[in-house]
Amino acid sequence: MAVTRTSLTGWGRTNPSAAELVELFRSELPAALKEVDDRGALVRGLGRSYGDAAQNGGGLVIRLMGSATDALLDREAGTVTVSAGASLDELLRYIVPRGFFVPVTPGTRFVTIGGAIASDIHGKNHHFDGSFGKHVLRMSLQLADGSVAEIGPDRDPELFWATIGGMGLTGIVLDATIRLLRVETSRMAVDTHRLPDLDTLMDTMADGDDDAHRYSVAWIDLAAKGSQLGRSVLTRGDHARFEQLPAKHQSDPLSYGPEQLVSVPPIIPRPGLLNHVTVAAFNELWFRKAPKRKIGGIESISSFFHPLDMVGQWARFYGKPGLVQYQLVVPFGQEDAMRRIVERVSASGAASFLAVLKRFGAGNEAPLSFPQPGWTLALDMPGGAPGLGKLLHGLDDMVLEAGGRNYFAKDAHTVPETIRRGYPRLAEWQAVRRRVDPHEVWQSDLGRRLHLAGD
Amino acid sequence: MDNAFGEPQNIVVLGGTSEIGLAIAHHLVSPVTRSIVLACRDLAKGEQAAAALRSDTVEVSVVSFDAADTASHERVIGDIVEAHGDLDVVVLAFGQLGNGEATGADVAEAAALAHVNFTGAISASVAVANRLRKQGHGTLVVLSSVAGERVRKANFVYGATKAGLDGFAQGLGDSLEGTGARVLVVRPGFVHSAMTKGMKAAPFATTPDKVADVTVQGLRRGNRTVWAPGILRFVFSALRHVPGPIWRKLPLG
Ligand SMILES: Cc1cc2nc3c(=O)[nH]c(=O)nc-3n(C[C@H](O)[C@H](O)[C@H](O)COP(=O)(O)OP(=O)(O)OC[C@H]3O[C@@H](n4cnc5c(N)ncnc54)[C@H](O)[C@@H]3O)c2cc1C
Ligand SMILES: NC(=O)c1ccc[n+]([C@@H]2O[C@H](COP(=O)([O-])OP(=O)(O)OC[C@H]3O[C@@H](n4cnc5c(N)ncnc54)[C@H](OP(=O)(O)O)[C@@H]3O)[C@@H](O)[C@H]2O)c1
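Above: the input entities. Below: the structure tokens describing the complete assembly.
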């Protein structure tokens, strides 16, 4: 097999490690696994996790070949069976024109099905539809010993749920059958509200209206201080029905062709381009641009779900130190804790370009799944911001204190103890892992850093 | 594995009683630090230093290490990895200054010093680099010295070993390119430490703390070389070209 040692990072471009990178078809996996040494093997999707989840320093990193061209769409059942190496981008291009949508999409469509399962990703519809794993009906899993397991909620459910949110450490998902959502159009009907502060925002989101919309998320301006702290733009939406479309779109209601505009060149922008001043200015613009209140605006799927995808490699804006994402959840009833967290981030001056607040609905059976009922906040911060390490370690304490936790797919900084407190079912997951991977073939930098496999 | 802020989990100091090495360890400690290993020949002194670093979350161990015993290096490094896992930052801090021009006139003393500072440093570095290459990440910090930039008569054996070590470390760093492992060469000027105790300070003298500061910054930025203090980089780029007759008369200590 053609292996090349390659330096890999996550989307945040922070802590690299080098691994033997190889692209393999599923039929080639068993032979490749025989040659794995003590540094182990890991499958990597499109590298959209921010930290070191898809890295395995010194070991083997496998890109699973596969695309949506051989996806099997069952129109009657409303399901699709697709290779785990395929991306949501490809899948959407295939299913949207046929009147279907993925059950959950993250803020980028450039993730693989395997990555979506391994992180048990959530979208703007979590309060309504739950996370990705809930919509997986079955999957086949390449095990460390070379065999393939067929698993589902009713077939080896322990392994099934350990694989959902399992960060690639139970095996390689080869293909999966996923329940889809039927849509009449490829457009979104969107309501937008501008809200003056955090309390008003959380009150508005909690008042029950949120549940009337499939999708809901708020963008918070963390550069605003004092009485404006937490001023925000709340967007809620649903898939537009045919009659909601303007006449000109009705002739082709399911047309879908997202374009990528530009890619940030690899030339690094001047260091410090993203600082508190530029971010504050940007946020000011964004906030003012949003209407105070607008109901039923029609938007495309990409502008509603994947606006960042329009700017290709935008993470490069952050230059050499990269960017760090921090995503936390605190249970309902901990609104005060959320306010203190927002205050602390805002006071730190660590410029946060994007801060996103959303309400999570019920969690699922997966022991390492991130979402739990409550409030989730995601922050983007330049990796080079002074004092950022201290800030995030401090936030960890506040989050744990409030009974919350942070998200593996975004993590690049925390410590094993934090995970043990935030994910009390870790031991249960470890037991399943020991059963299917006693020789610790599956390894990742994230796993080693957070001692996921051991104590 | 370092985290996104370059905060290492596992730190090793070879020459674990060195004041500069210990200062670097202190500066590297963060909430993610799991273990620090002080590898030194004077275990009692090592234990004293360990006590100052130890905390509820940081395990500090002292292991026996003699730079002169090159045959043991691979085993010592292997044992550390066995006990603590991947090496994130290894600081090569041991070194001997010798006794000035007297060392340069004593066959046994000169050879012994070269053996520790040069042969021992190379042997330990190779043992570390092999591990870093295998794990695909990690940084070796090599304490070179401005004394190697242009060797002075006052400590020419020492200066020569540092010149050689510096060249070796740069080449090692280049050879590790693409493997995920890195080398950071640190070039301090005169540092107030046990090594220079009682000596007259040279211009731009600094402290172990300041050297540690510069080193940690260099680690976070992914530099290949740092000078401490930074200005010495410019001073030495001028001194390198000073004609010999003048160089020999300069009051550089
Ligand atoms: C702009 C942006 C917005 C985002 N928005 C959201 C969001 O709204 N909600 C959300 O939940 N996440 C979000 N994410 C995170 C992203 O959805 C997850 O990190 C996702 O896992 C990335 O998928 P990937 O294919 O790139 O996987 P990678 O990042 O390459 O890998 C992630 C993990 O999945 C494992 N994995 C990959 N393929 C397989 C497989 N076939 N079998 C088993 N394990 C596998 C890897 O081993 C690794 O542990 C966002 C990321 C970006 C960059
Ligand atoms: N101080 C300066 O002005 C200066 C300037 C530039 C560069 N440097 C370099 O920085 C490094 C650290 O020096 P320092 O200032 O911290 O001085 P230091 O405190 O004297 O440290 C030197 C260390 O080397 C150890 N050592 C000597 N021989 C050894 C051997 N055979 N095996 C194992 N360890 C051995 C010593 O251990 P013992 O305690 O057992 O003797 C001591 O801990 C050295 O490489 C030095 O050359 C120093």
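Note for the figure: The pocket of flavin-adenine dinucleotide (ligand 1) is lined by residues A 11, 42-49, 53-54, 64, 84, 106-108, 111-112, 114-115, 118-119, 121-123, 167-168, 172-173, 308, 409, 444 (CB under 6 Å).
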